[in-house]
Every structure is written in structure tokens, then in C-alpha cells.
Amino acid sequence: MTWEMAFVLIVVLLMLAGLIFEVARPDIIMFITLTILMLTGILTPAEALKGFSNQGMLTIALLFIVVGAVQKTDLIDRLMTKILNSDHNHRRVMSRFLFPASGISGFLNNTPIVVAFTPVIRKWCIDHNISPSKFLIPLSYATIMGGMITLMGTSTNLVVHGLLIDATGEGFSIFQLAFIGVPVTIVGIVYLVTIGYRLLPDRKVLTEKADRESREYLSEVLVEPNYPFIGKTVEQAGLRHLQGLFLVSIVRGKEKISPVKSSTKIQAGDRLIFTGLISTLAELQRNKGLKMDTGTDLSLDTIKNGDSQLVEVVVSHQSHLAYKTVKETGFRGRYDAAVLAVHRKHERIKSKIGDITLKPGDTLLLLTGPDFKNRMNHQDFYVVTPIYEPKLMEDSRQTWFSLGILTLMIFLVTFNMLSMFKAATLAVVLMLIFRMITPDEAKQSVQFNVLLLIASAFGIGEAMVKTGLAQFIASNLVSVVQPFGIIAFLFMIYVLTNVFTEMITNNAAAVIMFPIAMEMAHQIHINPMAAAVTIAIAASASFVTPIGYQTNMIVYGPGGYRFMDYVKVGLPLSFMTMVITIFIVHLVWV
């Protein structure tokens, strides 16, 4: 092993440790790794930037815009509502929405599908006295499996497609992965509706749990006539930056003021509702004219007014809020919403709200104001409860025109009239010309953090190939599996990729494993397509942990799940997917 190989290996291992322990956002960790490799001379600037011009990566950027235009319509919501209300048998209802959800995921990014379906499913479950925990993991898994069916079903397929074009000059066709994706999806959904349903927990949703435990983190203080700051603002009274407490609502007779602004003036008789560390309330009571009120039945309904709503959101992987404290984000001013509680891994973080450092996957319970809908950013968090608002009449022509352009794109790629990249470019141009989406909306639809991660991963993979590290690792792995035949080779590639996916991210796992798998395929003299297909499926098949795939993280908090729920339900599904994949790859591509 040369010093360059050793250096790249150490840097990659440190990168993996950073991703596993979530020391920063994944895209930042990957970009820092790429920068180190460039500054130390391992990569030239041209080699480091190679991923930023990769066809697969650029196709993903264009598809974000196409999906954004389709997502603007309420077609998915209407479809899901119709399916859920079609039957009263829980398992039949589940099968009826899992198959369409997986089918749609073959052509649209599964993240917005899960985000759109989750509030509708949760409301239906609550209305029918069913735990959403019986439905949300199956929803995530079904969309993951559906994404395996087509080239455009998931960004992972497009990443491997781009790598394959660079390596061999030939990528996937649009339905090539359907040989595996279709049987995996059918078998997987049958498993989820039967055995998986029994393995899933039956838990309360966060809002029910929060309402039941509201006395633990909500407290009430009465403003007496002798309070020296009557007529003064909340800011002037020093109630905005309290140690351990946050003022979320003021009850004034029949009026409820929430969220509370810094400029709100205090009046005698006001009931001040605080959230946070209730143990610190004694310090507040030392202020003249403030008295803790213990004679009321305090609940979440107490703090809601006609314009405010209780909303749950999940912090996304690409969020600008991640790794900042609630106070640093300026949450209330930015989104017109107060954070009542932060839940991580199904447990409420018992700390002053403003001092909590947010992480991807955290579930926030918000008390929102009337302007929340206009201010919220879908890239910062996913809203997983329905937001009630007046429905505007939607132009059905726009809905069908957006779907028509999507269908045209799929048609052109299916019959090899255009490449995926060219067809996606045409679709974006048509949507902009016919105003299906505005330039600003197009820009907001693109998840630049995801693109930075993918582009950086391409450069890191290039460093592994250039220094010979990929060949070195491949040679050692080949010496282990060669005596056992091709099945052992496919098994090792699948397991290694899948383990990386469960620990880090699917795209990073695919890019890191691709050069190693290509070298192994070359040394064993088998079709590189067999290795590429195996990596694409294994990198998507994240069923065992909530951290490996974004949709698993989205339903983690809203479903009230624990880590072991994913292990219990996901392990059998992961094993079935592996067996089907290896069998079909060996049959079709070896």
C-alpha cells in the first residue's frame, strides 16, 4: 500500500465516522473530504469537480424541478383520500394505498410522496381510532421499493447510472431495474400487509402524547394588578429571554394571543403560558406581580386561538436548521411559529427550548401563527400534520398538463428517443414556458445540499480509483470470495453496500462502493452491469434503520417509532430483497 492509498483510506474512514456520528450535515462532511483531497494534491481541481458535471447528478437536479411542478397540484392528496375512504378493513386499505404509492414512486421522488401522504394517513388513522404506527413504516418502505422499479425512481439509480456511463459508456435503460424492482415490490407489500402488520407497534401519535403530558412542559403564570410592567411590551418586561422558559401564549379573557410577539403589551389579568423547564418557574415567581396559577386544567387547547394550529414537523437532512440551537435559528420570527417541544428518538428533550441543538430527524411540536404556511420552507422541515386553510379552486388543466409533460418525458426515454438527461431538460423547459412552475419555484425545488453531497462523492470515488485504493480493496475482497463463486461475489457487494447505506446515506454508499465493485467485476471477469445493478438495489434497500433513508426518518417521529421497530420489521424485508436481487442478477446479467 502506497502512502497516497493509505492517506485516502484514512480520510475516507474519518469521513465515514463523521457521517455515522452526525458531526455535521452529510453534504458538508463530504465536501470537506473532497476539499482535503484536492488541497493535498491527491486530486487535481478538474478531477475534484468532475462530479459537478456528471450527467446523472445533473439529471437529478432537473428531476427535482419536474417533481416540484407535479407536487404543486393536489392530485396526490385527492388520490390518497379516495383510497383511504374506500374501505373500512385496515389491511385492505393498506394494500390499496401501498401499491399506488410504490407505483407513483417509480416516477416521482419518494420523499415528497411520503411528505404528502403522511398527514392524510395520520388524520384518517386518528379519525378511525387506529394507530398511525401501523401504516407509516409500510408507506416509507413501499415508496423505497417503488423507487427501484425505474431509472428515475430514486436519485441512487441515477447516480449509479451516471457512474456507469463514465466507466463503460453505457447506463441503465429506464425500466431495466424493473426486473428486480417489480418482484421486490410485490413480495414486499404482501409481507407488510400480512406478517409486517403484526410486527408493527401500536402507539399514540405525538400530539396525543403531548396533550396527555402537557402539564410536564406547560405552565401558567397570572399577571396581577401590581405587576410593574403592565402596559409594557413582552420585550421590555424581560419575558423574551428567560432562563429555561419560553413564552408561547397569552390568554386574555376569551382572547388567545399565540404565538406571542416581542411587541405584545402585557395587561393585568393576563395568563402567561410558558413551555420549557418548569423547574425554573420559581425564579420567575420572584418577580413582583407574577403568580403561578395551579388551579387550572392546562392543555394544548388552552393555547390555541382561531388562527393558530398545533403542527408537527420533522427536520430534514438538508435543513439549514440542523446543528443550530432553536434560539440561533430565530424560529419564531422566521416561521411565525413557537416551538413547544422537541422530540428525538421518541423521547421529549427536557431542556430549555432555545438551547436545544436541532438534528435531522427531530420532530418539533409547533404552535403556528396565520403566516406559517407562507413562511415555511420545505427544505428545512417536512410538515407531517394537516394544515387547515381555505382551499382555492385549482386549475385542473394545469394539473393534467403537468402530468402530460411528465408522461411525455417517460415516453421519450422508454422508446430511446432521448436520453434521461435530455428528456428531463425538455420537460423543465416546457414547464417553464407554459408556466407550470416559476423560475423561483424551480430554484426552491432543487435540493442543492443533495447535489453537493453527490458531486462530492463522485470526487472521493475518483480519488479511490486514481490512487489504486479501489483496486487494492477489490483484490483483497476477491481473494476472499473467489473460491465460493459468483454468488459469493454478488452477496459481498450487496451486503457491503447495504451496510453502508444503513449507516451513512444511500448515494454516498453507492459512490464509494462503485469503483470497488467495478474492479472486482473486472478481476473476476463478469459483466459490470451485474455489479452496477446490485449496487443500485442494495443502496436503495434501506429497511433496517431510520437513518439510512430520508423517508424512514420522516415517519420516525410522526409514527411514534423506536429504533428497534425498524430492525424488527425491516430485517425480514431486507433479507427477502437481497435474495431476490442476487437470484435475478445472476439469472439475467451474469
Integer count of domains: 4
Q: What is the arithmetic mean of pLDDT?
A: 85
Helical content (DSSP H or I, runs of 4+): 55-70%
- Portion in strands: 5-15%
Q: Which structural category do the helix and sheet elements fall into?
A: alpha+beta
Set out the fold topology.
Elements: H1 3-20, H2 26-39, H3 45-48, H4 55-71, H5 75-84, H6 90-105, H7 110-127, H8 136-147, H9 155-168, H10 178-199, H11 206-212, H12 214-217, E1 218-223, E2 245-252, E3 255-257, E4 271-276, H13 281-285, E5 290-292, E6 309-315, H14 326-329, H15 331-335, E7 337-344, E8 347-348, E9 363-368, H16 372-375, E10 381-383, H17 396-414, H18 420-433, H19 439-445, H20 448-466, H21 469-481, H22 486-503, H23 506-524, H24 528-540, H25 550-556, H26 563-588
GO cellular component, one term: plasma membrane
Membrane topology: Multi-pass membrane protein
Transmembrane segments: 6-21, 28-46, 52-70, 135-154, 174-200, 401-434, 446-465, 477-497, 529-549, 569-589
Task: Report on the architecture of this protein.
The chain has helices spanning 3-20, 26-39, 45-48, 55-71, 75-84, 90-105, 110-127, 136-147, 155-168, 178-199, 206-212, 214-217, 281-285, 326-329, 331-335, 372-375, 396-414, 420-433, 439-445, 448-466, 469-481, 486-503, 506-524, 528-540, 550-556, 563-588, and strands at 218-223, 245-252, 255-257, 271-276, 290-292, 309-315, 337-344, 347-348, 363-368, 381-383. By secondary structure, it is of the alpha+beta class. The protein folds into 4 domains: 3-24 and 462-588, no CATH class; 63-205 and 392-448, no CATH class; 208-303, Alpha-Beta Plaits (2-Layer Sandwich); 309-383, 2-Layer Sandwich (Alpha-Beta Plaits), CATH 3.30.70. A hairpin with a 2-residue loop joins strand 7 and strand 8. The two termini are 31 Å apart.
